[in-house]
Amino acid sequence: MRSDLSLPFRSALAVVAVLTFLGGCAQLPPPAFPVLPPGMGAVGVSQAATWAWSRGKVARPDGTIEEVRWNGAGDFRFGGGQGAARLISALFPALIAVRGEITPPLDIGAHLGWQGMGLAGRYRFRPALGVALDAQAGYTFHTYQVKVSADASGLAPGRVILNAGVSLGRWPHFLFVPHGLQREEGSEEGVIGHSGFELNRTEVRLELSAGAGIRDIFLVLQPYIVVASGAPRFGDCYLCAAGIRPIDFSQSFGLALSILFLNVHR
Fold it and tell me: Quick one: 159 exposed, middle or buried, by C-beta within 10 A (0-12, 13-18, 19+)?
């Protein structure tokens, strides 16, 4: 890894923009970092796309129930067709993070993102193996997450990211409603995105972070499985027609695909 902003670092920004346009902005899993060289620190910039497969139910004004299925409703994000939101999320990173080594077996860090911020730490009790603790909180929806994981990134320091663990917390979601249940377009100024209900839900997740890097750039896949969840807490609905009520929401798995750019320094 290099200490300057290399050509791959800059040229990959175009790829990141395309990735962000595909996935929108969302509250992401905590950023995963490789093991840094002794005495070194790093600044990381991450862009990501998130997908989650979910279903829900809404009640129409006449009382009939309609099931809603959406491959993006599992995580709060902007939906398709709203150019301004996607342009903004493509121009600005999803996460900015810093990481540094305190002593040879311990490194700590912090991150700031679109939907939340958090702290992280990792202790390596063996050169290749360690334990990591991540905690983050969202700016809205009263959300928070804590993750404990086993970390094997030391198997190939500076080239591999690998950890698996359990997270507990309250996650934000968004339940989209069909176009037929939305207000007429243009009826409310200053609102972008599909109609839908904000909600959050307490969950226990199994999470994996697996990635590989070339020079300054890491491609990281972060899938998760929801193994337990509480009842959804619904909030307001954007652009919904009058009389629409949320009935149910379910989501059991999803993933985030991110590109991490590192600038390593002393």
Answer: middle
Q: How far apart are CA 225 and CA 207, in angstroms?
A: 7
Residue 194 has what pLDDT?
A: 61
Q: Are 149 and 132 in contact (CB under 8 A)?
A: yes
Tokens of 44: 């990381």
**Can you tell me the distance from the alpha carbon of 193 to that of 50, in angstroms, rounded to the nearest whole number?**
16
Contact 175, 52 (CB under 8 A): no
pLDDT at 184: 55
- Beta carbons of 111 and 30 less than 8 angstroms apart: yes
Measured distance CA(103)–CA(65) in Å, rounded: 58
Q: Are the C-beta atoms of 204 and 151 separated by less than 8 Å?
A: no
Tell me how far apart the terminal alpha carbons of the chain are, to the nearest angstrom. Answer: 12
Q: At what angle do helices 83-91 and 13-23 cross, to 10 degrees?
A: 140
d(CA 163, CA 69): 31
| Amino acid identity, position 163 | N
Q: Mean pLDDT per segment of 10 residues, for the chain of length 266 residues?
A: 47 52 55 81 82 83 81 39 41 75 87 85 91 88 90 90 95 78 52 68 95 88 94 83 85 86 81
User: How high is the pLDDT of residue 84?
Assistant: 39
Contact 191, 184 (CB under 8 A): no
pTM: 0.79
Distance from C-alpha of 171 to C-alpha of 138, rounded to nearest angstrom: 9
For residue 73, the model assigns a pLDDT of 37
Enumerate the β-bridge partners of residue 68.
56
User: DSSP string of 35-55?
Assistant: PPPTT-EEEEEEEEEEEEEEE
